[in-house]
Structure formats: C-alpha cells, structure tokens
Amino acid sequence: MSKAVKIGNISIGGGNAVAIQSMLNVKTSLVDKVVLKTERLVQAGCDIIRVSVKDEEDAAAISAIKKRIKIPLVADIHFNYKYALAAIDGGADKIRINPGNIGSEKNVEEVARALKSSGTAVRVGSNSGSVEKSLLEKYGKNEISLAESALNNVSILEKFGVDNIVISAKASSVPLTVATYRYLSKKTDYPLHVGVTEAGTIKMGLVKSCVGIGSLLLDGIGDTIRVSLTADPIEEIYAAKNILRSVGLDKNYVEVISCPTCGRTEYDSVGLAEKVEKLTAGIKKPLKIAVMGCVVNGPGEARDCDLGVAGGSGFCVFFKNGEIYKKVPFDNVDEEFIKELNKIVG
Amino acid sequence: MSKAVKIGNISIGGGNAVAIQSMLNVKTSLVDKVVLKTERLVQAGCDIIRVSVKDEEDAAAISAIKKRIKIPLVADIHFNYKYALAAIDGGADKIRINPGNIGSEKNVEEVARALKSSGTAVRVGSNSGSVEKSLLEKYGKNEISLAESALNNVSILEKFGVDNIVISAKASSVPLTVATYRYLSKKTDYPLHVGVTEAGTIKMGLVKSCVGIGSLLLDGIGDTIRVSLTADPIEEIYAAKNILRSVGLDKNYVEVISCPTCGRTEYDSVGLAEKVEKLTAGIKKPLKIAVMGCVVNGPGEARDCDLGVAGGSGFCVFFKNGEIYKKVPFDNVDEEFIKELNKIVG
User: I need a labelling partner for A137 at 20 to 30 A (CA). Which of A6, A122, A246, A248 fits?
Assistant: First the structure.
C-alpha cells in the first residue's frame, strides 16, 4: 500500500479514498472565475483542483483563491522556481513542479525548504515527451525510462529532505501509461497520481482514460486520478466518478443495470433505462435497479437488484431481489415503475 | 495463446485480430430490417453479428439472412434445442447456447452432432445471474463459480466431441468480469468472448465496458469483444473500435492527441481538436495529430506526432515530429492547420 500524503484538508494514499481531481482552463489571475468554476466542479464531485501558474499575477492570485474555496488547491508550475515559492507562500496545498527543470541546485534547495517549512505537498513526475536523453539511451523509450524519469525527480527532492511527495508518469499511450504505473507501484510507496495525458476529446479521451485509469485501479494502483479531456472540466469529474463506480471504489450511488436489448424486447426498455438513470443520478444510496428487455434473462440476471423490470409479451414484470411481484401492461410500465422506484429511493 | 476457432469466413483466437461483434435488437424474422441494420453495423466496423432466435419464425429466417449478409452470423438460443438445430441447418456460423439448459442428454447429443457435421462454432458461457447452485455452494459467489459454470458447459459439449468452442462468462460487475476472464484464461485455451453484461446506458455502460474489456485486452485476454450498451448497436461498434485503438490493437487510424487545456491556453484548442477529429474520423492511416493548448508542453509532449499545433500568445506554432516549422496568427489557425492536415492525410 502507498503511504499517506496530506494535501490540505484531505489525505491521499495509505488506504484513503481515491481523490478525484481536475484542472481549470481559465487564467488563474481571474480569481472570480476560478472560484466560480471550482464551486461548480466541487458540486459535481471534484476533490482537488489544480490551476496553472503562468506568470506573477497567477502566482499572486493563489492566496485570494485559497481563501474562497474549500477543496485543496494545487499550483502547476513550469520552469520558474519563484512562482513555486510564491504559490507555497500564498497557501497552495500542493505544487506540481519538476525539480529537474527549475535550474540550479540552489533553486531546488529553496523550494524544498519552503515545502518543508509549510508542509505543502508536491507532485513530481514525468511525461513521455520529456524523458531525459540519458534515460532514453539507457532503457529505451518505454515504461522503465518514463518511470525512472519520475523517480529521478523524486530523489532530487529527497536529497533535501522533502517526503510529502506524489508521483505521476503520464503518456498519451494507454499501454505505456499502465505499464509505467505498474512499474512505479513496485518501486515506490509514494502515492500515485494516475491519468492518461493528452487523451483527446470527450469521445476518444473518455475511452482512453477509462481503460488506462480503470485497469490500474482494478489492480489497486492509483491514489488520486485525473481524467484529462479536451472538453469542459466538469466532464472530467463525471468520467472520474463513473470510473470509480465501475471498479467498485464508490458504491454509494444508484447503479442501473440494463441490457442492450435484442430481438426479444417488445417494449421501450432503452427509454425507460435512460429515465431511471436520470431520475436517480444524484441519489447517494447503494441501490441496484435493473431494466431488462425480456424475461429470458431478466429476473435471473438481476437477482441481486433492489428493484427491476423485465419485458414479456404485452406486459412487464416487476421484481425485487429476483422475485416477480407485479405484472404491468406495457402502456403503464414507465409510470408504474417510477412509482415503485420512488418508494425505494425516496 | 488461445487456439483458433473458425466462425464462417473469419477466425478468432490463435493470434487473429480481435473481432468486434454486436447483436441486433429487431425481431429476427423481419429479414429485411435485419439485413439493413447489419449492413449499417458492418459499415461502422462490425465483424460478427448475432441475432436472437425466439421462435420458429426466427429460426426459419436464419438461412434467408445468411444469404444476404457478408459477415458471420450467430444465432442466440435459450432453452429450445430445436431452434439450435434449425439455426445450424439454416447456415448460422455460430450458435450461442448453453447445453446445460436445453434439457436431456439426448437433446445435447443431437445439437453436438449437428455442430460437428456442419462445422458450426458454438459459444457457451455463464452469467452471474445463472450460476448453478452447486457451484455457488462450493466456491461462493465469485469469479471461480462463474468461470467454472462456463467450463461446465464446455465439458458437456466436449463429451460429445465438439471442440470449436468459444467461451464467455459475464457479469454486470466489472471487477467480477475481469477476475473471471483472468481465471478462465489460465484454465482454458478456447477463445474468449469478452464483455461486461447489462453494462447500462451509453453513459455508464461505456465506462464499464471500457474498463472491463480494456483492462483484459491490455493483458492479452480476449479474442472477440462485445460492448453491451442499452443504446443503438452502432454505438457498441464505435465503442469497441475505440477500445481496440486505445489498447494499441488497431493502429490503422488517425490518432488525435489533445491536451485538456489549462489557464495557459489562449486559443480555442478544444474546438480545433474536435474539428480535426471529425475530419479524420474515417481515414485508415496510422497517423498521430497533436492539438495542444500551449507551447510549454506542446511540441515536446507531441514529439512523435506527424503533425501538431500548439498555442502561444496571439499565434500558434505548427510542428512536425517535434520540430516547429511555422507560426500562424490565432485568426487563421483553424484554416491553416486543416490545410496542413489535408496535405498528410489526403
């Protein structure tokens, strides 16, 4: 198991819940916008929010943002160690920086000292596009060089006594991402920030993120996740939540089990499944609802559902825990089923 | 590696390409509709199509359908062995049936004889809702009982000399599905039909299918896949194709690498990424195109892309294989980039 690292008022790793994070796509110095967008993401289920620090104005905005949001704030810094110092000073709960690219050892030492005295966490990592030439030559272009590049950055900070570290090692290739995190999970016990980078638009990016992040989580790898989508960040939160649910790490929701329908289906089970999904979307109760096309597999396949419906000829049957308890003609199915649903989710 | 099984004019297992399949949701006896819908799915990338055989009319329709479609046809039969015989007789390339639930040994023997003399393939399997009580008592409700239930059905057919078998073992739970196929892949070398059953609507079902099917494929498990969505079957094909691409099993397409954008992004990279994705959707060439928000990570992260764009201040840079070769003002970026794109995909 990874060890726990504190990021503001939450901890990741060490058996804590896998935290969902996203990153804002507005300029950080636009504090009002940042706060508003963060609140919207928090409503959707975001646990940690990251902002980029591109210039002095962004760095200066950190403390103002920090005062107005309730979730941990991460400042993302490239190259300029002074922005890192300013962000730590402004109260950032974590900074994302690579000590390998902020210049002299003196710069690293200054950042390390600030991290230690403030207790700020730090994420270091690698990206398949920026692996050091020496590592590429030694190991080739693969999971080992990508992981070792991240671990290099870790050891630079460890030299200065920093240990509240989170590690990432991202690629846009799913197989490379998965292989790299598997390698990292054997080599280190720092918490891992998992994601597929530059995954793409919501269409392909969602698939790549589900496959990559999901398969790692299934094997117990990953302490915080970021779904990267070229889309509204709120889609990243929805996707991240659904991934956690799909791998069984979030059971506190209404799971809608529904079949793909086939030639046996004689009522609009697709429409009903969608209605049920919409009606139960916000409900935080561990329930399973089945919407099945036909009785061939219906009640049997949905034996452990709290409530279910399956189509027959001209009528549907409703069932609870695999036992049929009601027959309803097709015409009234939606209305009646939603009544039954309301009884148990209400 | 699994052994190869021939299904009509394609083979699965034994190192053959992972075949994409779907199932129709119209009544099988409506032959014209079946043929039309199949053609649409084939256009989208479907390799194998399955239809349900609910009654004698459906069984009788198999031969008519078979004459009019080009991809292998699978007949899905529950309980009634006579429909299985009729489907085999009608030229189905594979039947989906469980010998454990078609009655007496004599029935099984008849089906087995028909399978052998015709060379028809057969898929047997289990479903988490229909595991035999004896197995549940012996192993508990887990991957072992679910897998052993499928293997039971295999051995019933093997007794009668049938060996062109494909196996499935499905659950609506992703962790259970993955654990079961991992178990099966160690216990058998028959090809595996992989999918998450009753995965749900396109929203949650897509996530569950990506995580479940994707993580198995990443480990080399799975010879044919079915994405089950409570939606238009064409969505199942799109999802299946994207899963194969995400795990690196289909490289013959235009991959669009695009970042999630952040506060550093000053042009509409989301819009451009979507345009590029649309324009290149049908193109079968192994190309990588990068659409990056900013130059901080842009060219570096997209070093091995055939063409890329990254935003600066007021202008974008275009790059090829990591080398910047052109600067274009924001106003002309979309138009100019699409021109460059057309040069290489043309």
Answer: A122
